[in-house]
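Summary for the steering committee. One of the milestones for this cycle was to obtain a three-dimensional model of the protein with iron/sulfur cluster bound, which we needed before selecting residues for the alanine scan. The sequence and ligand used are listed below.
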Amino acid sequence: MGSPEPLIFSLQHFCVHDGPGIRSLVFFKGCPLRCVWCQNVESWKAEAEIGFKAHLCIACGRCVERCPERAIASPGRRDANRCRLCFTCVEACPSGAMTRVGVRRTPEEIVAELRPEFPLLRDSGGGVTFTGGEPALFPEFATDVARLLRSEGIPVALETGGLFNPERLNPLTAELQLILFDIKVFDGEQHRLLCGSENMVIKENLRSLVQATRLGQGPPVWPRLPLVPGMTDGPANIRSWAGLLRDVGTPFVTVVPYHHMGTVKRAWLGLPAGPDLRVPGDGEMAAAAGLFASEGIRAYHPGEEDFPAEATTGRASASG
Amino acid sequence: MATPLQTAPDRTTAPGFIAATPRIAGIRAELLATPYSICLERPRLLAAFRRSPEGRRAARTEHPLVRRALALSHVFSHRRPRIYDNELIIGNMTSKRIAANYYIEGGSINILEDLFRLNRRAVPLKMGRTEIAELLTTGVGNLFRSVGARALLRPGRFSYFLDFFRAKRHFVTEEAGIGHQVGNYRMVVHQGLRSVYDEAAKRLEEGRLGDGSALDADQRAFFRSVMITIEGIRQMAENLAIEAEGLAGRPDLPEWRMVELLESAAACRHVPYQPARTYLEGLQAVWLVHVALNLEDFEQGLSFGRMDQILLDLYRADIASGRLSVERAMEVTAGFCLKTCETMPLYSERVDQFFSGNGVAQAFTLGGTDGRGSDVTNELSGVILNAYAQVLTREPAVHVRVHRATPDWFFEKSVELLQMGTSRPSFFGDEAVVRALEHAGMSTEHARDYAVIGCVEMASQGRTYNSSDAALFNLPLCLELALNQGRRFRGRARIEGSRRCGADTPPASAMTSFDDVLEAFRAQVRHGVDDMVKVITWLEEVYRWHRTTPVNSILTEGCLQKGRDVTWGGGLYDYTSVQAAGLADAGDSLHALKRVVFDEKRLSLEELVGILKDNYRGHEDLRVELAAKLGRYGNGDQEADRMTQLAADAFADAVRAHRNTRGGQYVPGFYSMTCHVGFGKVTGALPDGRLAGKRLSNGLAPVDGADKLGPTAVLRSAASLESRKWMNCHALNMKFDRKTVQGPTGRRALVHLFRNYFSQGGMQVQVNVLDAETLRAAKRDPASHPGIVVRVAGYCAYFNDLQPDVQDEIIDRTAHGLS
Ligand code: SF4
Ligand code: SF4
């Protein structure tokens, strides 16, 4: 899985919770996981998609008229089997209700678009974070972008779900200042149910990335756990992860509270509604942090971590 | 309007600040529980003076300058002193705990529109029956004494008078009063008013100005007016001292309070006539002069300036001698802040749609540089910030000057105050501001001594007669007029029919290039500005004879040297500042029009104008396309930003082409109070997809929802505009979700964001950190739907597209303690 040339579905600036300092995020499209609580569902498919934002539609009918395949019966009702993804409808739509999710961009284009942010990223000790989706599905492309960024003095972080082929990741890790490593459900069977795959590889990848850090062959690794009530917040889950983190040698974790601000995106893409999940309260956040602490793991809120110095200042260039 | 006394919900002081003492908390609670009212003591005293033998003699024999000084002096010396429980700084602003002064000379009359529902307004004004009757007679009885009536109830000017009630192109606020000043408080504190009094006496005795030229009758009258006024202020202070002594003698009073009252009495016997000897006396001196200034002209924008510079020596000496602790200094300063809550502006609900939430803006300016450009932020800057953090009230305003060497501790402390949700302080970029002031003719040294007047206006403190905020101008309407030969698309038939209210520019059919349109737009702007200037000119004439301002003149360098009142051109620097609303709408509209009509030739100009006249009826697709799919100001889009610059220049150049009757330059600014709402109601559909009647863009901000790329792009667009000509500054308002910018991380992020903005040449930015309550209110009123910056870990938010759907989630998240 994973074509060498990924689609990018958004660049977002002034982000303060995804690595040190102020960061710009590059969202890669395509993810091998299918976590039921996902709030970036537009990242799942590696292919371009069309979203329909009903609240913007003015029912002008241009999309219906212009579609060469007659794939749109009425506004918002697009027959995915007929659609050839020519995006004529998106072009024609005056309101932005029809939107294209995922655009091909060269590394140079991405960097050019990020460049106005560079002074702020540098001054704040921030940088660029690759996220998605799963950027590690596209290690060659990500490496190219990271190299360009580093050549201009911009530190790069990777946020990963951990399910990737470790052999292909190597050149990329050499360019990174930090890896934010998402951990979710410890139990393999549960993980398969809730996230759509086994998690052996994820745990192995975590271990070997930390190993590489220790050997000076990779950037610091920082685990993050999304706290989803009823799914990842059980004491057993937290204790098991704490055990692994201790064992691996990363006695710290960011606990990211679940939110449902992305739920509406499912409707845009015509996906069935996800499960009805609750946002954790302050008490639940504190309880999770306390549990980690009792297991010897320091827990942080997003944006409040004390990242190792290498993550902000950048390591000595490994790739020259 | 919702002008709660507190701008933020009750919250304990943030961890980084020292908390309020029980005294401050108590006074604050008392003020919060006090209803607003209107004070009629000033008109009463003025009437008494007019009827007195002295007043009648003055009317017959005295020069208007002297007559006015005698009247004001009568007010100062005869008003009843009131000292409230536990105050450390004394001196009542009005006869009531919280009230608006009624100014018969202008402005206040509009409140009569609400006469029969004063107690039922959104912001109720508590008045008894007899008081309401008195208000009515005061208003009606003095109708023809107002500046507006004197200037405009004349043949040939009547329609301009009506414009006050049907503001479309502009709103001439100077009719209400001039106010808006940062006086020479350095002189007040360090030399005392005595220095001015003695100087005036000397001039009169010698019969000559400082430069040796002989005094004319007007100049003689001026110097007399100065002396009479200072005598009145002295008497006002003396009366307070007597009152304080009287209270101190009450047997039930604890000893400590007796000591305080006697200290206050001693202070009021000494300042503001003599130089202040302590920090407390310094603040007391400033306060008394501020009260006098409020009683003189009107209350808007009377500001304190750079108190962290002016009071620093006294503060340090007191701390060194052990007379004062840091905590006590904060308590006294917080008490001073609470005194500013005793006043409020008087707007009828109709006028309020133009100025709501604006308050009075009695402003402190903190930080910045000295005349050589070195940083002068100091410990007192921090003390004053902390003092405000202890009260978080609707007054005073707090402004922070930022430059390269602004220390991080102070910047972070300022942002920490912001995080408490008060939208204070706002930040000013020294580099851009000083450049604009120099461009307007100030010496570099004087420009670097700038302080903010009220909300955003500028003065070299104690040297400038800015007559700022003289009028507000509806910029997008000029495009409407340009597209329709000087007529509104849909004037209200009964009043204006198809009457031309703008310049006679060519019909759409005759405009064959974008430059033609631009030229017509510029012509309309010039025409509107000319009209506005005409009204201000008439007002200025009336001011000179009926509403001179001796207190203001005492506080403005240049007046004593020239022997002239500020209204006669006495100020060292003299300006009239006016500001435009709807800049982004004007810029985006020029951009959209150029694209679809002239670049892409998708429709003719006449067709577009037809569609606009019809308010896009039947062309909703075109409308949303213009709004959603073209590049717009606020996204770092160079072409859209360039069009916004063209719109800004059209206004700036039209304004700068004028001089006022005092010889001062007209200077432009871009902020709108809430005029963008009022003006929006009378403005037709615009080419940027805005429907007729909708509110216009606010200050320098992008059109609501037009910024798609987040705060960095908005700031980039704003900073990219050439602001050298904007001596009257601008307001750039940004809104952040509280959770996005909370804690030390959020604080540092905002500091970096603003430093970055100012390093690009940014001039001003103010921030609302929105809490759940504000968000809920915004949701109830979809029209005020704010473009809020929300950031959540790992989450891709499509900004404005997402907001209608996720507002509840944002509110939930903000209400709970989640990050
Ligand atoms: S992408 Fe092309 S084929 Fe698919 S619905 Fe749109 S216009 Fe039709
Ligand atoms: S073109 Fe866009 S706005 Fe028009 S009907 Fe289709 S989706 Fe709706």
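Key point for the committee: The two ends of chain B are 31 Å apart (CA to CA).
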